[in-house]
Design goal:
three-stranded antiparallel β-sheet, 4 helices, 11 strands, alpha+beta
């Protein structure tokens, strides 16, 4: 209580506590740090749940979904099976009552010169041919010649 009385009675000491009000950098930093509070907390929670559900990034400081940037300039495929290795990793998975089997590249080499890949995929009872073409900022997977021996097996493409 004595210190509060001292601050109240000393104008210079009182004003030292309010210097930040005229500091543009401090005000800008404060506004930036708490900008997210201008939106409804329920909206922020829904955005967070959406990001979590779909595996998107979350910016904790700004309380918003972090933009996903997939680099389009580098397209690489693996040496053995021509699976896409950049800008994302291509994995084929079969899931049945016996469990999950993953078909992924097991070699270290890769080729980064072409914007397309062609190859056969064989995972357990699933066989198919897939062609990957990258154009206009879009990556297309064209899947054909599909055979699946077991009807209760799911086939999943993970990127």
């Amino acid at each position: 209580a004595d210190y509060v009385k001292k601050v109240i009675s000393d104008k210079e000491l009182w004003e030292s506590y309010h210097k930040w009000r005229n500091d543009e950098d401090a005000l800008a930093a404060f506004e930036s740090a708490y900008e997210f509070t201008r939106s409804n907390p329920s909206c922020r929670m829904c955005r967070w749940a959406y990001a979590k559900k779909y595996g998107l990034g979350w910016d904790h400081g700004k309380q918003q979904v972090r933009s996903m940037k997939v680099p389009k300039e580098k397209f690489c495929t693996s040496a053995d099976h021509a699976l896409v290795s950049k800008p994302f990793s291509e994995h084929w998975v079969t899931r049945s009552e016996q469990g999950e089997t993953v078909f992924e590249e097991d070699s270290d080499g890769e080729q980064c010169s072409s914007l397309q890949a062609d190859g056969d995929i064989e995972v357990d009872s699933f066989k198919g041919h897939r062609r990957v073409v990258q154009h206009d900022g879009v990556t297309d997977f064209i899947i054909s010649d599909i055979t699946k021996d077991q009807a209760d097996t799911d086939v999943i493409l993970r990127l």
